[in-house]
Specification:
The protein has 71 residues and is of the alpha+beta class. The protein has a single domain, classed as Alpha-Beta Plaits. A four-stranded antiparallel sheet has the order 2-3-1-4, with helices on one face. The termini are far apart.
Amino acid sequence: MVRVKETYPVLGMTCASCVRKIETVLNKTKGVTEATVNFATEKVTIEYDNDKLNLDEIKKIIKSIGYELIT
């Protein structure tokens, strides 16, 4: 198991509901240990198991709910 913890900018957030939506979806994703979003800095910090999930998959998940992860 390779745990990765990274912080990335997220585009498209306009309110606290956006933060909750992203955190909820990511935290329910298999392989994600923890995801937290900071609305003020417009960034997400994601800790995940790189053996179960990769960054491209995370980007697709975030895009599918209407936001863009910048890497």
